[in-house]
Amino acid sequence: MNISLRVMAVAVALLVAVSACSPIEPWVKPYEREHLADPLMALDRNPVSSTYLDHVFETREGARGATGGVGGGCGCN
Amino acid sequence: MQLSQSLRGASRPALAALCLAAVPAVAGVLPEDRADFLYHRYQGGGITVQGPSILVQKKIGDHFAVNANYYQDMISSASIDVLLSASPYKETRTQKSVGAEYLHGKTTYSAGFINSVEPDYKANTAYYSISQDMFGDLTTVTLSYSRGWDQIYRDIKVNGQIVNDPTFHQRADHRVYGVSISQILTRSLIGTLNYQFSTDQGYLASPYREIRYVDPNNPIGYTLAPQVYPKTRTMDALSASLKYYLPYRAALTGKYRFFTDSWGIVAHTLQLDYVQPVRHHWTLDGNIRYYRQGAASFYSDIFPYADYSNFMARDRELAAFHSITLGLEASYAFSIPRLTWIQKSTATLSFNRMMVTYQDYRDALYSKFDPGVFKGGAEPLYTLDASIYQAYVSLWF
Question: Residue B187 is part of a domain; what is its CATH number?
């Protein structure tokens, strides 16, 4: 098994493992998430802009990936 | 005459990595209906890259969402690489992508396809991801995978016309595996962990750029020769971020990324971002990004002699350097009379200044154009200052 398959196997096992845990009482209730729901707290407020900037950096640097630019829509470039 | 391109090499695999940006931040929620119309411009180091990017996201019913992006880079380059060994050039890269998301309970499935075309490089990328909300929706776990297939050509000038060199056609494949966890930590704090494992295989060098080696018989002190890259590369990237809501309605974000690969590059990225609404219509954003990397094991600014080792590179992207980027962004919310179906609209201007200091990449133009004063390997170190402009309008409908 090559390294990439091992990584995926571990990831899948982790996902299954945490899914099987007994229910955890949420310590932040749904009605306490007003701040988190504010558009300022979106993990990627402007995907079209952040993916462009990621592209600018990645074409000029040796490192890439895990930028955490999650958000709806790919907007890849 | 051989052309040279400053964006070759590092840019293409980035496609595969960036697709993972498609994974949703919150699995149980589809992205908003939204359209963005952006114009971008990069200027620095003798290169100007500009063009549009249009991104549309639309829900279809309660469970489906689709997105599409049209992006263009219009490149005009007289970079240091071009001036060293070739001629300034202009070209256009066009990228199109489509994607879809399906929400089922607390699970979101995403998939998409990206196509990028320019005269001497064609890239296709497919991506998939699955996100699951758990633990009272405090935690979102995402698994993602993308695969890219590139075809690389080399342009030559024949009778004044630029054509693909019929003797040169290479391929490269890319795979990216990602795991990400978003965690609500408190009422005002979200944390995110991202891990990405990537592999590249095939032709990974630029067909235009060259190394140089010491040559006492040459008046400038060196001779240029083709680069020789390994055919494979594996990469690990791990990042962590925290986003905090400040009591007076502002948000502060801190990010750190560690990167290492089989070529010997180790890199660190630190980012801080602060965003705050001002009065009723304005939102202001300020950010700073620090990046530092060590050189690849087979990189050298100038090799001691010809055929010095199995692999030899002089791409700036593989050199040791650090950079600081400062960014400012101002966004104005406005309403559009009569278009009542548009719920919200903003116009945004963004400016970033990137300052790069290379530690082992020298400005070889000094010795090329003034060999009496500067010898190969003794030129000043190269520095790059670039300005990045973005202007865009966003519509929520």
Answer: 2.40.160
Task: Say yes or no for a CB contact (<8 Å) between B291 and A54.
Answer: no
CA-nearest of B287, B277, B255 to B354 is: B287
pLDDT above 80 for A73 = no
Two tokens, residue B162: 């630029």
The number of folded domains in chain B is: 1
Nearest to A41 among B57, B141, B190 (CB): B190
Share of chain B above pLDDT 70, in %: 93
Burial pattern B62-82, b for ≥16 Cβ within 10 A else e, equals eeebbbbbebbbebebbbbbb
Q: Which residue from B79, B77, B11, B88 is spatially nearest to B384, judged by alpha carbons?
A: B79
Q: Which residue has the higher pLDDT, B2 or B156?
A: B156
Q: How would residue A47 be classed by pLDDT, with cut points 50, 70 and 90? A: very high
| Per-residue pLDDT, B18 | 44
CB pairs under 8 A between A and B: 264
Domain that holds residue A50: 25-62
Q: At residue B326, does pLDDT exceed 80? A: yes
Number of folded domains in chain A?
A: 1
A33 lies in some domain:
yes
In a domain, B392, yes or no: yes
Identify the weakest region by mean pLDDT among A54-63, B9-18, B232-241, B339-348.
B9-18
Is residue B6, in this structure, part of any structural domain at all?
no
Full residue range of the structural domain in which residue B80 is found: 13-396
Confirm whether A75 is domain-assigned.
no
Sign of the dihedral through C-alpha B365, B370, B372, B373: negative
Alpha carbon B382 to chain centroid distance?
21
Residue B320 and residue B314 in contact, taking contact as beta carbons nearer than 8 Å: no
Mean pLDDT of chain A: 75
ipTM passes above 0.95? no
Residues B317, B208: Cα–Cα separation, whole Å? 14
- Closest-CA residue of A relative to B242 is A43
B352 contacts in chain A (CB < 8 Å): 53
Burial letters B275-300, b for 16+ CB under 10 A, else e: bbbeeeeebebebebebbbbbbebbb
Q: Is residue A54, in this structure, part of any structural domain at all? A: yes
Does residue B8 lie within any of the structural domains?
A: no
Q: Does B265 sit within 8 Å of A63, measured CB to CB?
A: yes
Residue from B40, B251, B10 nearest A65 by CA: B10
CB contact under 8 A, A48 and B255: no
Contacts of B241 in chain A (CB under 8 A): 68
In a domain, B358, yes or no: yes
| Assigned token pair, B210 | 């060259």
